[in-house]
Amino acid sequence: MGDTNLNYLIIGLVLVIIMLVYFKYNEIQNKKDFIKKVKKQWGNIPNRNYTQDQITGIKRYFLNKSKNQFIIDDVTWNDLDMDSIFMMLNNTNSSIGEQYLYYMLRTPSFTQEELEERKKVIDYLEQNEEVRIQLQCMYGEIGRSGNYSLSDYIYNLTELGDKSNLFEYGIMGLAFLSVIFALTIPTYGVLIFVGVLIFNIVQYYRCKGAVEPYFVSIAYINRLLIGSATFIKAMPSELKEYADKVDTVRGQFKKFKKHARWIKAGKKATGSFEEIAMDYIKMFFHIDLIKFNYLLKEVKQKVTYIDELIETMGKIESCIAIASFREYLEYYSIPKLINDEQVSINADDMYHPMISNPVTNSISETSSVLLTGSNASGKSTFLKTVAINAILAQTIYMAMAKSYQSNFYRVYSSMALTDNLMSNESYYIVEIKSLKRILDAAREEPPILCFIDEVLRGTNTIERIAASAQILKSLSQKNVMCFAATHDIELTHILEKLYHNYHFEEEVKDNDILFNYELKIGRATSRNAIKLLHIIGYDKSIIEQAEEAAADFMENNSWRILK
């Protein structure tokens, strides 16, 4: 009988060893697969789909942190489709990296020192693959916090009152007693054990459900602290200041890791033997709930340190993503940004980063710019190209151009507006409010670079031209460089002493209208609206009469009354 028990024991030990070896092998293989993945992704646009909840969660860090500083406001951000630019750049593997990258894109820098420091980090990570991959593996271990907004829960922890562990200790006591009964009085003890097990599990999920989002925060902070050890070791002497900051924060959480190892949430389950066993122990003894109540007090006292950890480590991963984006681009330049009383912008062969095989354009201006041209000729795309490059120049310190120089600017736009049905506001009301926010901002420093597409398109022609001329005149003041697109050719004459005229043009060929999207000096002289009617197949009489009416107006400056 003794030999049989020994054999069972040996078999059991062998099975445990096999499982441990298997799980260790999986761990090593997973790391190898992850390294292959990050190498493959390097220099490519991330292939990731986002839900609205995920974008909202990513945005929350920016909303919580961006107090008392200039930001790219929602109107401008949406006009330029900057969410898509962020997604192009977001080659990160953790929530802290992507949240900081989003924050960076919405908070342009106005100091050369900050941008040069950012460039130093990006340059190093671009050139040192071994360090970069080591860091990427660490960020991959930290992972993402799912649809939970880590920032919200950390900043809102103070709303969760301190909780007593008295009930949880009672649960734990019941669990120990049931185990003792099961071992000493098997006949009845097993029934008691099963009853207590069911009761404890039910109570566990009831109690945990109330604090699950905060579990995610605690577990994520713990993964940050674990990852910070790798971060410190990986940081080279050139970036020692970042390692020192993280090391200082780690010193504030010496006991945290010991207690937080019981808190697991927000990360994909591995299915390991250890993980499964730990889950059942936690459900039975409520250990993680007890530890959570202890850790909650510590986190509430040290939110500032946690914020510094998120910022420092998130900043480095966002720089990894920017370095990868550099590799993707056909060419880019490091912008030259100046503090000068005279507003200016100079860019050679500038392009839009989201357009495949883009047509490049150059511009060198110290005056505001008025753009004219036919529908679909490239006016709006050019406005967005200049605006996006201006933002990227002061955020990721890159311009999609062979050279780029400008002032440090606050960037505003009023372009892709719509009726606000929720506020019961017409397009025109939305538009004039959008323009007023730019006029109000122009009273302050630093200078503004603004972009307006189709000024006051939501009203009648006479008042549109009269009001547009005065608004654009106000925006041509010393502290503003304005790029405006319009179909109202009258404005190119009214404002010719305040704005320099540029245009895009088209060519009609084989019953088709061809655009070259090349920026040209001067006002537009061609129109295509009536030509498009012909190409699409409108009745010939409609086209001929429209052409006659247009020609008559150009000659007499009045419209014929139709009969």
TrEMBL record:
Residues 366-551 form the DNA mismatch repair proteins mutS family domain. The keyword Metal-binding does not apply. InterPro entries: DNA_mismatch_repair_MutS_C, DNA_mismatch_repair_MutS_sf, MutS, P-loop_NTPase. GO terms for molecular function: ATP binding; ATP-dependent DNA damage sensor activity; mismatched DNA binding. The chain crosses the membrane at residues 6-23, 174-202. It comes from the Bacteria. This is MutS-like protein.
